[in-house]
Design goal:
The complex is a heterodimer of chains A (about 700) and B (about 375).
Chain A (H helix, E strand, L loop, with lengths): L1 H11 L2 H18 L5 H13 L4 H18 L1 H7 L8 H12 L3 H36 L2 H13 L1 H4 L4 H15 L2 E2 L6 E2 L5 H4 L4 H20 L13 H10 L1 H16 L4 H15 L13 H24 L5 H13 L12 H29 L7 H20 L2 H20 L3 H25 L7 H27 L1 H6 L6 H8 L4 H14 L3 H22 L3 H26 L11 H4 L11 H18 L1 H17 L3 H21 L8 H5 L8
Helix pairs in contact in A: 1-18, 2-3, 2-4, 2-18, 3-4, 3-17, 4-17, 4-18, 5-6, 5-7, 6-7, 6-16, 7-13, 7-14, 7-16, 7-18, 8-21, 8-22, 10-21, 10-27, 12-19, 12-20, 12-21, 12-29, 14-15, 14-16, 15-16, 16-18, 19-20, 19-30, 20-29, 26-27, 29-30, 30-31
Chain B lengths: L8 H21 L11 E6 L6 H16 L5 E6 L6 H10 L6 E5 L1 H9 L12 E6 L3 E6 L19 E3 L8 H9 L5 E3 L5 H10 L4 E5 H13 L3 E6 L2 E2 L5 E2 L10 H9 L6 H15 L2 E5 L5 H16 L1 H11 L5 E2 H12 L3 H15 L4
Parallel strand pairs in B: 1-2, 1-3, 6-7
Antiparallel strand pairs in B: 3-12, 4-12, 4-13, 5-8, 5-9, 10-11
The chains are: A mainly alpha (about 700), B alpha/beta (about 375).
Chain lengths: ~700, ~375
């Protein structure tokens, strides 16, 4: 082992290796900043270089590129609330509120230093772990993986806000949405309305963008302010690093979680950041700031998500099973170079494995380091008036969503989930709980079904299952303790914390000067305003579950049993929410309407909720008719002229640069932009054709 | 998966007009001089995600084909995943230009839904022109604890509980599942596996006790298990000889192929509908697993240009030195061989199609 390690070290520290590694890193960073592009960027851009290159250098370049995919998308997560990949969804939760407080630089530097640390520490853990990884991975069968999904689900408890029943219902919506498409046991199509797009299920990236990014954009547009409210940004560079040092133990724990969970094939990738985030909340004494810009909420997921990439290497190298999209790309690249993964990677080829593990760590240092240095300047983006930023952000979001499956359905799904997100935000249904449900739905059902098929119900007695079961119970215990704590100690948190992601900010900024007045408004509003909108939404949720139940009864037993059980349970829970609302107990935590709490209602300076939704609907309908490029250009012009009130020249130049950027990007990356009816009927020249 | 509804008269009229118009246009646009792609960009549609098997296959070929096409156009791979690869293929059928700059790479996962009459399939293989067929093989193996040493002992498995981790009954797993059914061996298929790799992992964990892998994966990842005494290789699917018969896989000359095993067990060579169906799916899934196609209406000249480029590629030194690691030892089918391989794979009679559909429905509750 020592030998292999020394050989690896020698390879890594040679000039050419570092050179190619840095080349890969820079290439990855340059394009990875654009959300949704990771993997495609990897292969399409790298291939011309890889071809005919010496294997070791090619490998270095490949690693450099893969390593920074989860690093560079932190920029959009923190600065704009746009999660570029599944690994950065939890980062949005606290990162974006920090940016809104004017602490973007601090959040970024904490995030990148945590990434850097997580990557390095992860590599350290991996160096030893790789030797015992094979039996560990083999010990995690379907039964254990199913239990892990339950452990992940228990995080809903801490992320549920102040009404547990609402949190669970939100999670249930996520689980139900995650079950759309082919059933794992039988392949029957559930809730897909005979629609080809829905048969494949809704892609996670689209859901993440819709549920988090769209509601934030709409909210900021309505308030018509820059992302960062504070007049002075403050560099925050050192502060972020200090934050990491102060929370070093949290970072270490999260890096270990990232490493191990990331190494489990079939689950790892998308849950790790949520488990890390939940862990941070559970183990913190003062939880009141989570979701409103607590730096620990940034450090935890970021230190776990780079360690996760390292962990993801293990099943890729040992078993040839890629744990994530970027690992799939890496695996493809390895085969092209002529390296076939397999058990030999921990015996005769151990030095190659170490070279890969430590090159990944090295690439993390270079990548996160570069981002760290950049963050000070990039943070300034948050001070730009939002009306100018918004069209670019909407362009980016639509483009990223479309990359999920390259289907117009992606844009429809984005709109649909976006609307859901807006309503959930408004009525205080916790969106993180929804997302966790969505992420875990597929794995949970598949592994439960497989575990029962493999071992019968006796799988519940396996030692691994029992251990994870106990961990889950402990996690739930912490969660309930958290809930009762916030009930007694944080009275004021009750109203604001319901959505736990942003409402507090909304109200804080609106009534910045007098908190007293704010409370008064809330108190009086609570007794007066109509709860009808909330009731309508809760009814719609109940009806959705009723449909889920109806749909599941149309399927065969194995195809429908999961959704049937889920829907039945959720009908009871969401029915409870509805009942509580209708009986109208104003003090009950289920009662929440952000329009009133944030003081939007009756405020002339805030645009109506529907106003910007119409803009969005217009854009997406435009895509169906005219194609994306024409539609987004018109959107740019209309938006800039009517909303940002820019001059003719500025409008033209901004629109032109956006269109040019998109066209060149899609050409170089061999991507189609969404085509509309127009393009199907008439042959148009590039780029609009 | 239901049969397509009858087309409306108007749609048919429209199609007629469009076909007519496109014929006129095609005649006008055929250039008189020899095909030359200088300065052009060839888009090679791969209906799968980046990093998967088909993607890797295409990216392996792309730069070499680029060198061998006249004018050395850049060949780029364009991934259009979705709908179990039907989406990209549908898009190719609908939009591809017949000037030789648009080609499609398909895999067994594209061929199977076509053979089964999946309702998502809107493409027609008969319209296209195959210029390359890449074969692979498959090896079936069992857990050593089942107490068998070779194919001869297979009958012993009849009274044991066999579990097989599968991606789905209509996936490439149709071939092993049908094969075992023909050998009268009962198997409990556990679905929801994310790829053959996941099935192999379940085998290593002891969750399932039989499995199969394609040749490359078998060599690298199962051979060590065989050496440790954990896995026993039983049979291969074989390869397709020129006369259309099944022969031993040259990569595994010691292992019997499926038809041999059938004869061992039943005492007579396989014949009848079930074997005909099995063979069609074997060819579509293995013997001609991946292929490059030019769209409908491509001129003879362009087809020939492509055929030559592929032939030159396959015969180049660079290909020979690298292909074994990426593609295995199987000979690539070019020119007429490529066409005839796919003809064998994709000409399934309506009666046979009906047979396999009802087999899948009865056995695995697949709804069409």
């Amino acid at each position: 082992m020592i030998d292999a390690f020394l050989i690896a070290l020698q390879t890594i520290l040679t000039g050419t290796h570092l050179l190619y590694l840095s080349g890969g890193v820079l290439l990855g960073l340059a394009i990875g900043i654009f959300p949704g592009l990771g993997g495609i960027a990897g292969l399409s851009l790298l291939l011309p270089f890889l071809f005919g290159m010496e294997p070791v250098s090619a490998l270095a370049m490949l690693i450099g590129l893969v390593a920074v995919i989860p690093t560079s998308d932190t920029f959009t997560s923190v600065l704009m609330g746009i999660p570029g990949s599944s690994g950065s969804q939890a980062t949005v939760l606290d990162g974006f509120p920090m940016a809104k407080k004017g602490q973007a630089a601090r959040a970024l530097s904490a995030a990148f230093s945590a990434s850097l640390f997580g990557g390095l520490f992860g590599a350290l853990v991996l160096t030893l772990f790789v030797l015992i990884a094979r039996p560990v991975i083999l010990a995690f069968g379907s039964a254990e993986l199913f239990m892990l999904t339950l452990l992940g689900l228990s995080m809903v408890g801490v992320l549920a806000g102040n009404s547990l029943v609402k949190g669970l219902s939100a999670c249930g919506i996520g689980l139900l949405f995650g079950s759309i498409g082919g059933a794992p046991a039988t392949g029957e199509y559930r809730m897909s309305f005979d629609n080809n797009y829905l048969m494949d299920g809704i892609p996670l990236v689209v859901v993440g963008l819709g549920i988090f990014a769209i509601p934030e954009i709409i909210d900021l547009l309505r308030q018509n302010r820059p992302i960062a409210e504070a007049s002075k940004l403050g560099s925050g560079w050192v502060e972020g690093v200090t934050d990491l040092v102060r929370n070093k133990w949290l970072a270490i724990r999260c890096a270990v979680i990232g490493c191990i969970v990331g190494a489990l094939p079939g689950l790892g990738g998308s849950v790790v950041d949520w488990i890390a985030y939940g862990h941070a909340v559970q183990t913190s004494k003062d939880k009141s700031e989570f979701g409103k810009g607590d730096v620990r909420g940034v450090i935890a997921p970021e230190s776990s998500n780079n360690a996760k990439e390292g962990g993801g290497l293990i099943p890729t190298l040992l078993f040839g099973i890629p744990g994530s999209g970027s690992m799939a790309v890496f695996l493809g690249g390895m085969v092209l170079i002529g390296l076939e993964p397999g058990p030999a990677m921990v015996s005769t080829d151990l030095d190659i494995t170490y070279t890969i593990v430590w090159s990944l760590a090295m690439a993390n240092v270079i990548g996160a380091g570069a981002c760290l240095i950049l963050s000070k300047w990039v943070a300034k983006l948050t001070t730009i008036p939002y009306a100018l930023m918004a069209p670019f952000m909407i362009m980016v979001i639509c483009f990223a969503a479309f990359q999920a499956t390259r289907d117009l359905g992606d844009l429809m799904a984005l709109l649909g989930i976006g609307l859901l997100g807006i309503l959930m935000k408004r009525f205080g249904w916790p969106r993180p709980a929804f997302l966790i449900g969505f992420v875990l739905a597929g794995g949970m059902e598949t592994y439960l079904y497989q575990a029962v098929q493999f071992d019968g119900w006796g799988f519940l007695l396996k030692p691994g299952v029992i251990i994870i079961g106990i961990m889950t119970a402990v996690s739930i215990y912490f969660a309930t303790r958290h809930a009762s704590n916030s009930d007694t100690n944080n009275e004021s948190d009750d109203t604001n914390g319901a959505d736990d992601f942003d409402n507090a900010d909304g109200s804080a900024t609106k009534n910045f000067e007098s908190n007293e007045k704010d409370k008064l408004v809330q108190a009086s509003a609570k007794t007066q305003y109509s709860i009808r909108p909330q009731v309508v939404f809760a009814t719609a949720v109940c009806l959705t579950f009723a449909y889920g139940l109806y749909d599941s009864l149309q399927q065969s037993f194995l195809g429908g049993v999961f959704t049937a059980g889920l829907s039945a349970l959720m009908l009871i829970l969401s029915g409870t929410v509805l009942y509580k609302l209708v009986t109208h107990k104003p003090d009950d935590p289920v009662n929440f309407d952000n329009e009133i709490v944030a003081g939007y209602k009756g405020d002339q300076s805030v645009a109506s909720l529907m106003h910007y939704i119409y803009w969005l609907v217009g854009l997406i309908l435009g895509c169906f008719v005219l194609g994306y490029l024409i539609s987004i250009s018109l959107f740019f012009i209309a938006f800039l002229v009517l909303k940002a009130r820019t001059s003719f020249i500025k409008t033209a130049s901004l629109t032109m640069s956006a269109v040019l950027f998109l066209s060149v990007l899609s050409h170089v990356m061999v991507l189609d932009l969404p085509r509309g009816l127009l393009q199907d009927l008439v042959q148009l020249p590039w780029p609009i054709g | 998966m239901s049969f397509q509804p009858k087309k409306h008269a108007i749609t048919r009229l429209m199609q007629g007009i469009i076909t007519g118009a496109s014929i006129v246009l095609a005649t006008l646009s055929i250039p008189a001089q020899a095909t030359d792609f200088s300065g052009e960009r060839v888009e090679w549609i791969i209906p799968f995600k980046e990093g998967g098997g088909s993607d890797t296959w295409a990216r392996f070929y792309a730069p070499m084909i680029s060198q061998n096409l006249p004018g050395q156009p850049v060949v780029v791979v364009k991934n259009i995943p979705g709908g179990g690869s039907t989406k990209g293929a549908n898009q190719f059928q609908r939009r591809a230009k017949s000037n030789g700059l648009n080609v499609l790479g398909t895999s067994g996962s594209t061929q199977f839904p076509y053979l089964l009459g999946d309702r998502r399939v809107k493409y027609e293989y008969q319209d296209w022109h195959a210029v390359l067929a890449t074969p692979t093989g498959g090896v079936f193996y069992a857990n050593a604890e089942l107490g068998i040493n070779s194919a001869k002992d297979l009958v012993k498995l009849r009274n044991q509980e066999l579990k097989y981790g599968s991606q789905g009954a209509t996936s490439l797993d149709l071939v092993p599942l049908l094969a075992l059914d023909m050998l009268d061996i009962d198997v409990k298929a556990i679905f929801g596996m994310k790829g053959r790799g996941a099935g192999r992992l379940a085998f290593e964990r002891g969750e399932v006790n039989i499995d199969y892998q394609t040749s490359a994966a078998y060599l690298k990842k199962v051979t060590p298990l065989v050496k440790e005494g954990k896995a026993i290789p039983i049979m291969t699917w074989g390869i397709l000889a020129e006369d259309g018969s099944l022969q031993r896989d040259p990569t595994f000359p010691d292992l019997p192929h499926f038809a041999e095993v059938y004869e061992m067990i039943h005492g007579e060579a396989p014949s009848g509908t079930d074997f005909k169906v099995w063979k069609a799916f074997f060819v579509a899934g293995f013997a001609a697993q991946k292929g490059i196609f030019l769209p409908k209406g491509t001129s003879e000249e362009v087809i020939e240009t492509w055929q030559n480029a592929i032939a030159k590629t396959v015969e180049s030194d660079e290909f020979k030195s690298r292909s074994e690691k990426v593609l295995g030892l199987y000979p690539q089918a070019i020119y007429g061989d490529a066409t005839s391989a796919f003809n064998t794979a994709l000409s399934i009679s309506d009666a046979d199609k009906e047979w396999v559909r009802s087999w899948l429905t009865q056995k695995y509750n697949v709804r069409f």
